[in-house]
């Protein structure tokens, strides 16, 4: 049993490490894109690695709308299931 627990713990650490690395990468990319890139000349080669500035606002707004939509649907479904459980008891 202890061996299985150690394997799961190692897997959890790996997933946590990958999530942390992904979050740091996205944060660094977005920060550079929004804060530093506007001060770089528009003909500089680094601009080809980034989307136009309009997307710097559009992408987070759309992600927030999608997140809130899924969260609202989830809460609604949980409330419906809870109501059905109370009714059957």
From TrEMBL:
PANTHER family in the cross-refs: DOLICHOL PHOSPHATE-MANNOSE BIOSYNTHESIS REGULATORY PROTEIN
GO CC terms of this entry: dolichol-phosphate-mannose synthase complex; endoplasmic reticulum membrane
Source domain of life: Eukaryota
Protein known as: Dolichol phosphate-mannose biosynthesis regulatory protein
Any one GO molecular function term: enzyme regulator activity
Mode of membrane association: Multi-pass membrane protein
Quaternary assembly: Component of the dolichol-phosphate mannose (DPM) synthase complex.
């Amino acid at each position: 049993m202890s061996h299985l627990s150690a394997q799961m713990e190692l897997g959890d650490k790996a997933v946590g490490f990958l999530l942390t690395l992904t979050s740091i990468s996205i944060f660094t990319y977005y920060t550079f894109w929004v804060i530093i890139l506007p001060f770089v000349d528009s003909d500089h080669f680094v601009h080809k690695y980034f989307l136009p500035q309009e997307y710097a606002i559009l992408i987070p707004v759309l992600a927030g709308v999608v997140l809130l939509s899924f969260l609202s649907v989830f809460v609604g479904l949980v409330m419906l299931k809870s109501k059905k459980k109370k009714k059957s008891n």
